[in-house]
Amino acid sequence: MTTRIVVVSAGLSTPSSTRQLADRLTADAVAMLRERGADVEVQVFELRDLAHDITNHLLMGFAPPKLQAALDAVATADGLIAVTPIFTTSYSGLFKSFIDVIDPQALTGLPVLLGATGGTPRHSLAIDYAIRPLFTYLHAVPVTTGVFAATSDWGDGDGVRPLPDRVGRAAGEFAELVARTDRSGLVNDPFALDRPVGHLLGGLAGE
């Protein structure tokens, strides 16, 4: 059976350090999955290429074909690698807008490897105070180690925790989680309720 990994990069420039980080995380994760005997298929989506479609979806309520292909890929993935630049201490607006147009149930039980980029290491905690809660709220399963890459991380690799070490650790956790997660029994039902019926009928308790 093929293990399907979807990569979402929210970088805006070309070339993009966000895409570079996504590529590094993907390469390590794929290598580790293949070491486990997995047949891995990777799909990469640059959100800047989908920016107009995402906006149209938010305004009109339907996804053009290119965006729908990305949404379908995420919904049927065995693992997601999501990387965003950090703007004003949090994820980018484009990144959040893409998450907003994903079906609320599509991420349930999905292993996610989180990455972020920024100019300074002082934003490194954004993964844990902003991005991780977003995916946890949507019932995804982010791995423990997120990877933040500041401008200085793209140098000679010196430091207490060089970028390649952090990438390898996070990719290893992701590969292990993907290998032991079975999402085949999850049904993405667009008519399912995201709250108990009792809550919708006046706040009654529901199981």
Automatic annotation (TrEMBL):
Pfam families attached here? FMN_red
Residue ranges of the NADPH-dependent FMN reductase-like domain?
3-154
* Keyword Flavoprotein annotated: yes
Keywords attached to this Swiss-Prot or TrEMBL record, sorted alphabetically, are: Flavoprotein, FMN, Oxidoreductase
Q: Name one GO molecular function term.
A: oxidoreductase activity
Q: Is Transmembrane helix given among the entry's keywords? A: no
Name the chain's protein: FMN reductase
Query: Which organism is this protein's natural source?
Result: Agromyces rhizosphaerae
